[in-house]
Amino acid sequence: MVFRKTIAVFVLLALYLTPSFAQTSGDTVTIELNEKLPKDPKVATLLSAILPGAGQVYNEKVWKLPIIYGGFATNLYFIDFNNRRYQLFREELGKFDDGAPNLNFPNMNRDALARNVDFWRRNRDLNFVVFGLIYILNIVDAQVDAHLSGFDISDDISLLCEPSYESLYAGGGLVGVSLKLKF
């Protein structure tokens, strides 16, 4: 019994809220439905800041996920590689300073070992900066994509490139190229 009353209330509410479209003397009524609503840039930014790639999923650009996570994975690989090389040369420099023989790099003196320590540490630190840039670009991409989601991309937009000729008052003329944007 309660179920029937609930259904009756929903049916009456639906009929009440549904606008009636009556035709009068040749007038036509058209209804346009926009299936894709613009995305909220704040939501996309927040999602991408919390979990990289979540803003792209919100914007329905899932194809960008492998690019983002591929960039993170590649960068993590190079951080690990540069850190291992840094640790190796730092250990060898410490052994050299203690007077132990340099068995791994016999052709390198102390200056060469110190330069390698600095080189690999600088590369590792630079990769941390690149990691931060990838993270920031992920957030910026999600925000910009959300802003542009409501941009009209229809067939009515075109850019024409045509030759043009203009007459001058003093005689002669100008020949050039004209760009016309039609929308």
TrEMBL record:
One protein family per Pfam: DUF5683
Keyword line: Signal
Signal peptide segment: 1-22
Domain DUF5683: start-end pairs: 39-183
Record bears the keyword Signal: yes
Domain of life: Bacteria
Protein name as catalogued: DUF5683 domain-containing protein
Species of the source: Belliella calami
